[in-house]
């Protein structure tokens, strides 16, 4: 007779709730986890197509395709041997209340970080990074930002809650050091003369060696604490159609993963993957891309812990 819960490696979708089939833990600050997964089902700050509130669910479902490998290529060691992960589910906030979401997320992140955990968060639209930065800055001080995106998201316009203005507010609030921050994959209008960020636009990233790109990243952020944020619209719509503001001419998933793998050794203190909008996806490829990017981020944390 087979014992329930003992054959998870052979039943891919059975009871697959948490990211990478990890257990749900609704009191993550009191867990033994190194990294806490948090979902943020919010898209009230979207200026394009809505629907990224369903992103966390889609990323978790896609992650079951990644959970069976054990020793994930090309790392060749089992993540779970070096990193303890729990998924605390999604934050709960008052429906339609962006301020309540922001306050709730800050409080949640503050508690998790105060307990000595790292965070990997799933949006939701990109505005969710701002309350996360506020919590991380409280614990780590002003940080460098490594930002994958089609848009700079530092526009000085729009309302209080807007997924294109977070990094303007982050500078005003002194959460990040823009002069020690870098943006990769940008391919929409920005002030290329006066931008305070180091910008590697999509044309440069697509046509320059990964080693040269990584050299510029490391030169820019140095030894600073780093917050790593990945908007899936940094990827070309051929690889990530399921997002609110797709822009042609983006990165391939392969190039993005090569760059991410090259970030090992940097002092990455917080991470998020945002803007997966499954209603516009095809065959789940955007959700799978988001889940795979998240897994690469976890491997970076495993390597950081080993060192």
SSE arrangement:
Blueprint: E1 35-40, H1 55-67, E2 85-90, H2 98-114, E3 118-123, H3 129-140, E4 144-148, H4 166-172, E5 182-186, E6 198-201, H5 202-207, H6 210-221, E7 226-231, H7 253-261, E8 268-274, H8 285-306
Parallel strand pairs: 1-2, 1-3, 3-8, 4-5, 4-7, 5-6, 7-8
Helix pairs in contact: 1-8, 2-3, 3-4, 7-8
Structure at a glance:
The chain is of the alpha/beta class and 307 residues long. It is 32% helix and 15% strand.
Structure notes:
The protein is an alpha/beta fold and 307 residues long. It contains eight helices and eight strands, in the order E-H-E-H-E-H-E-H-E-E-H-H-E-H-E-H. Helix 1 links the parallel strand 1 and strand 2. Helix 3 packs parallel to helix 4 and helix 7 packs parallel to helix 8. The longest helix is centred in the last third of the chain and has 22 residues. It is globular, with a radius of gyration of 18 Å. The N terminus is likely disordered.
Write down the CATH topology.
Arginase, Chain A
What is the gyration radius calculated from CA atoms? 18 Å
Bin the helical content.
25-40%
Number of helices: 8
Distance between the ends: 44 Å
Number of domains: 1
What's the SSE pattern? EHEHEHEHEEHHEHEH
Q: What number is the mean pLDDT?
A: 92
The CATH architecture would be 3-Layer(aba) Sandwich
CATH H-level homologous superfamily name:
Ureohydrolase domain
Structural class: alpha/beta
E-strand count? 8
